[in-house]
């Protein structure tokens, strides 16, 4: 019992010493803030990493010798540096996505720099549970780099793939490129980086939007709680408008407010009239941008047409014009008061003569009512 109490005392003493010990940053600051004994005043001190000495720059006095370098080793070694003994003193970082943290066994080189072919062949013949995952992670990384996504999105997609796909279980009826693209799409939604299925499909070879959508539904059903999360982080036209306008060179605060107000009012009017079917967010955002471009007075809107908006948004020109035709009758209600007088500048959608005449007559009546104050208009931006 006495020995046990003695050991407890030592453990408590060690814990107290560790709690009061200075941090590495404090130690580094104290090392370079000491005063030279010869100069008797604060001087600049440098560290000779090759010899491990702290030297005063004024008189050259060695203040400390054999200083241990406690900083991290970030050096990377090329193939030419590995001609002999491996210069790396530590292994790579652990990867929680792989079995056993990715700490697997590998066959190194012989002293003469050659490989033992027999051992290497026998080692590669064994079952490696991480081989398929490493290949899949590599493909996901290539897609993410092609689409310009961040490493956070890439790691999230790899984590989703590891959760859904079990080792040794094939994906029946689902192509691997479509599964990789669906994982990237979900990771983008989780990180607030909005990408449409068409944009993801552009970076996924040998697949279609339909296949990616089918894999997306499969992943949402396979992971508990993911469906609710996807509903909360649903892609809206307002989120896409900011990115589309930035790519079009229309990153103007007033223009973004105008386009966002048009989309919000259009949605509320459609819901009020009982339209339950929703259009694609990208098509609504593109149509709102096309409508606002026509009445915008800034130079940034010059030269922007439906073709250019189609290239940026990834939506077909016919799809954009169809959504624009649905918006056009509500122009007097959607636009703020400062822009109502510019409604005649809007290009009328293509339609039959009878429909066009009826639409123009109704639109003229709406404009007259708006000028008389009969319609509820939005406050100016």
Can you walk through the features of this model?
- There is one protein chain.
- This protein is mostly helical and 381 residues long.
- 53% of the residues lie in helices and 3% in strands.
- It has helices at 2-20, 24-32, 117-125, 131-146, 151-164, 176-190, 197-202, 209-222, 226-232, 237-248, 253-272, 281-295, 306-313, 317-327, 331-334, 337-340, 353-371; strands spanning 45-48, 53-56, 62-64.
- Strands 1-2-3 form a three-stranded antiparallel sheet, with no helix packed on it.
- A hairpin with a 5-residue loop joins strand 2 and strand 3 (62-64).
- Helix 4 runs antiparallel to helix 5, helix 5 crosses helix 6 and helix 6 (176-190) crosses helix 8.
- It is flat.
Please state the overall shape, judged from the principal axes of the Cα atoms.
Answer: flat
Number of helical elements: 17
Q: Helical content, roughly?
A: 40-55%
* Beta-strand percentage range: under 5%
Mean pLDDT: 75
Main sheet, how many strands, which sense, barrel? 3 strands, antiparallel
Low-confidence stretches: 1-5, 373-381
Main sheet strand line-up: 1-2-3
Distance N to C terminus = 80 Å
Helix/strand-derived category reads: mainly alpha
Q: How would you spell out the order of helices and strands?
A: HHEEEHHHHHHHHHHHHHHH
* Record field, number of beta strands: 3
Global Rg: 33 Å
Annotate the secondary structure layout.
Elements: H1 2-20, H2 24-32, E1 45-48, E2 53-56, E3 62-64, H3 117-125, H4 131-146, H5 151-164, H6 176-190, H7 197-202, H8 209-222, H9 226-232, H10 237-248, H11 253-272, H12 281-295, H13 306-313, H14 317-327, H15 331-334, H16 337-340, H17 353-371
Antiparallel strand pairs: 1-2, 2-3
């Amino acid at each position: 019992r006495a020995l046990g109490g003695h050991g407890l005392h030592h453990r408590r003493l060690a814990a107290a010493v560790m709690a009061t010990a200075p941090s590495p940053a404090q130690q580094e600051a104290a090392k370079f803030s000491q005063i030279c004994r010869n100069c008797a005043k604060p001087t600049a001190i440098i560290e000779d990493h090759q010899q491990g000495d702290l030297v005063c720059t004024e008189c050259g006095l060695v203040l400390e010798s054999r200083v241990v370098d406690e900083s991290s080793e970030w050096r990377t070694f090329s193939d030419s540096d590995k001609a002999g003994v491996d210069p790396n003193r530590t292994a790579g970082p652990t990867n929680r996505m792989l079995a056993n943290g990715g700490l697997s066994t590998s066959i190194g080189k012989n002293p003469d720099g050659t490989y033992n072919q027999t051992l290497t062949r026998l080692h590669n013949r064994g079952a490696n549970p991480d081989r398929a995952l490493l290949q899949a992670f590599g493909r996901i990384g290539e897609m993410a780099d092609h689409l310009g996504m961040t490493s956070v999105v890439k790691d999230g997609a790899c984590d989703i793939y590891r959760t859904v796909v079990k080792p040794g279980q094939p994906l029946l009826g689902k192509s691997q490129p479509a599964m990789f693209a669906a994982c990237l799409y979900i990771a983008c939604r989780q990180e607030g980086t909005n990408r449409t299925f068409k944009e993801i499909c552009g970076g996924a070879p040998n697949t279609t939007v339909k296949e990616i959508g089918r894999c997306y539904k499969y992943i949402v059903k396979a992971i508990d709680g993911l469906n609710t999360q996807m509903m909360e982080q649903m892609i809206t036209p307002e989120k896409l408008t900011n990115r589309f306008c930035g790519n079009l060179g229309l990153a103007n605060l007033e223009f973004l407010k105008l386009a966002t107000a048009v989309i919000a009012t259009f949605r509320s009017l459609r819901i009020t009239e009982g339209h339950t079917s929703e259009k694609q967010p990208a098509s609504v955002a593109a149509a709102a941008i096309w409508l606002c471009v026509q009445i915008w007075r800034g130079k940034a809107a010059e030269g922007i047409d439906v073709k250019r908006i189609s290239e940026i948004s990834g939506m077909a020109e016919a799809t954009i014009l169809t959504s624009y035709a649905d918006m056009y009758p509500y122009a007097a209600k959607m636009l703020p008061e400062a822009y109502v007088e510019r409604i005649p500048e809007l290009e009328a959608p293509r339609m039959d003569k009878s429909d066009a005449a009826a639409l123009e007559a109704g639109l003229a009546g709406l404009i007259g009512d708006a000028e008389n104050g009969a319609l509820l208009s939005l406050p100016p931006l």
